[in-house]
Write a structure and sequence with these properties.
- This protein is of the alpha/beta class.
- The chain has two domains: 97 residues, Urease, subunit C, domain 1; 267 residues, Metal-dependent hydrolases (TIM Barrel, Alpha-Beta Barrel).
- It has 13 helices and 15 strands.
- The longest helix has 14 residues.
- The structure holds zinc ion.
- Zinc ion binds next to loops.
Length: 386
């Protein structure tokens, strides 16, 4: 039998609903059966009093850009034990982070497909991602997918930007990725690009329009295709609030205006229609649009509730639903045999979503993660080791 941690008198959100107060057990690196708590050997057991606390599956942020190994490790101290990177360049960094051993699991698309003259193409030029990597036509799209498959990416991503690729290029990425059994993700931050992402039947659309609210035509198609949305409301809010972008949009009208309420309304429309909404922040270190990974996911959950999800639905968006739609069968729920990625928070996040940030303890793969005091938003948690 592995080392045991027994968490007593704790409310449990198991990825679906709330149970307890009752006992939860960590056995080595996995979630153990409750029966193990009945007659444990005191010398190999740690007991935690979970009175007044709720145990959650480790949180999953489905849209980040991680800078380095230290930042990746820091995510776990905010309760974020899995992150999905949505563009990682250069290749050396991808290889390094892929090999990183730490408390946070990292998934990645490596380089996304982009159009050389699009906004992202220009940004990538500035960031010295050479134009050789841009995808110009369907033949290059097929080669792009093969290159990413060779890099063993977790999913293939395209930036459906404006002005962007012809629809045929998006379609080719989707078809080729499916041939290789890869999930597909499209960056869709404007109404126009969102439409094209749906048209190409990408599995996951990330970002949500801030220029025009999604309509029933698009959303009904998403439901019938089982498209999943990762809205990144944290980033949409940051961009809509940016005075730099606001001034730039007056000078260059083609940049368009951004309205955060439009993004919120688009999430509401999708959610009401039954489109799965999954949590992601777009955490990054770009400078004016920087978002700190880890802590930002708690803000995203608040914004999802503002868009109309119940707190329980927001919790599912960052746990069980995220795991399900990113094919992570070993996590996202609290059930015996699953990986012991767990977060103990003070209070009832199923009633008040801000409670997710009142973190008391985090376990990753059964190991307790260190939580620096500055990572706690609302003071130290009271759930104590007995
Ligand atoms: Zn991003």
């Amino acid at each position: 039998m592995g080392r045991l941690t027994i968490i007593k008198h704790v409310r449990i959100f198991d990825g679906g609903s709330i149970h307890g107060p009752r006992t939860a057990v960590i056995e080595g690196s996995h979630i153990g059966d409750d029966a193990l708590a009945d007659d444990p050997d005191p010398s190999t057991v740690e007991v935690v009093d979970g009175t007044g606390c709720t145990l959650l599956p480790g949180l999953i942020d489905c849209h980040v850009h991680i800078l380095d190994e230290a930042q990746l490790a820091a995510c776990a101290s905010y309760g974020v034990t899995t992150v999905c990177d949505m563009a990682c360049v250069p290749l050396e960094k991808y290889v390094r982070l892929r090999a990183a051993k730490g408390p946070t699991t990292w998934l990645s698309s490596s380089l996304p497909a982009y159009e050389e003259n699009s906004r992202h193409g220009k940004l990538f030029k500035l960031a010295r991602v050479t134009p050789d990597h841009a995808v110009h036509n369907t033949e290059e799209a097929a080669n792009f997918v093969q290159d990413r498959v060779d890099e063993k990416v977790d999913y293939v991503k395209i930036i459906a930007d404006f002005p962007g690729h012809e629809q045929a290029v998006l379609d080719m990425i989707q078809v080729e990725a499916k041939k290789h059994g890869k999930m597909t993700v499209a960056h869709t931050a404007q109404f126009h690009s969102f439409e094209r992402g749906v048209q190409a039947d990408f599995d996951i659309l990330t970002h949500v329009p801030s220029d025009k609210t999604l309509d029933n035509n698009i959303v009904d198609k998403m439901v019938s295709q089982r498209t999943v949305a990762v809205p990144t409301l944290t980033m949409m809010q940051k961009m809509a609030d940016s005075w730099v972008l606001w001034i730039a949009s007056w000078i260059f009208p083609s940049l368009g205006r951004r309205n955060f309420q439009v993004s919120l309304d688009s999430v509401t429309v999708m959610h009401n229609a039954g489109v799965p909404i999954v949590a992601g922040t777009d955490a990054n270190n770009s400078g004016i649009f920087s978002i700190v990974p880890g802590v930002s996911l708690h803000h995203e959950l608040e914004l999802l509730v503002r868009a109309g999800l119940t707190p329980i639905e927001a919790l599912r968006a960052a746990t069980s639903l995220a795991a399900q739609h990113f094919n992570l069968t070993d996590r996202g729920r609290i059930s015996p045999g699953l990986r012991a990625d767990l977060v103990l928070v003070e209070g009832n996040p199923d009633e008040d979503i801000t409670a997710t940030a009142r973190i008391s303890k985090v376990w990753s793969n059964g190991e307790e993660a260190t939580i620096p005091a500055q990572h706690r938003r609302a003071g130290l948690g009271s759930c104590a080791v007995m």
